[in-house]
Amino acid sequence: xxxxxxxxxxxxxxxxxxxxxxxxxxxxxxxxxxxxxxxxxxxxxxxxxxxxxxxxxxxxxxxxxxxxxxxxxxxxxxxxxxxxxxxxxxxxxxxxxxxxxxxxxxxxxxxxxxxxxxxxxxxxxxxxxxxxxxxxxxxxxxxxxxxxxxxxxxxxxxxxxxxxxxxxxxxxxxxxxxxxxxxxxxxxxxxxxxxxxxxxxxxxxxxxxxxx
Length: 212
Hints:
This protein folds into two domains: about 5-95 and about 175-190, 2-Layer Sandwich (Nucleotidyltransferase, domain 5), CATH 3.30.420; about 100-170, no CATH class. About 30% of the residues lie in helices and about 30% in strands. The chain is built from four helices and nine strands, in the order βββαβαβαββββα. The chain has helices at about 40-50, 70-90, 95-110, 175-190, and strands at about 5-10, 15-25, 25-35, 60-65, 90-95, 115-125, 125-135, 145-150, 165-170. A five-stranded mixed beta sheet has the order 3-2-1-4-5, sandwiched between helices. It has a four-stranded mixed beta sheet with strand order 8-7-6-9, with helices on one face.
């Protein structure tokens, strides 16, 4: 029997797979699996450690990190989330991994209020992947993505490069903490009864996997 409050969260924007499960009747369950290149083989067994496949029809909603991250890892979890949402006819919500980091920072650094924060991830010889975030009480969860993460190539000027007033910080994935952010956003979406169509949820690739 379906449990509308049962949320599944998937996060694979780093070498570690994060999985989370939450329902109205229990505390969140969080797990991190340092799979690296083994993600393609071990994704389903890791998910089943928290929720066996025969119980997947109980799910009421899914949330997934869309990247930026590795091409294979990000794609696999997003595809799994899309497939489950489509087959189970349940809502799916995708959030960038940088947005999850930004929400963590605002929770512990209130001095950021009123500021715009750029999160950055340098890529050797290719530039820096960066996205901008700000507080917005109208946004789901209170933080809005002002600039979706994208690649700024070497020599390209961008507002968070230190030449302007915007703050900047390194992007750092914390798998279990970021999965908890996914569950919080999913719970908010559920409380608002947001539709969550699966079709628009796509992996975020700031760089092409075929670039040299």
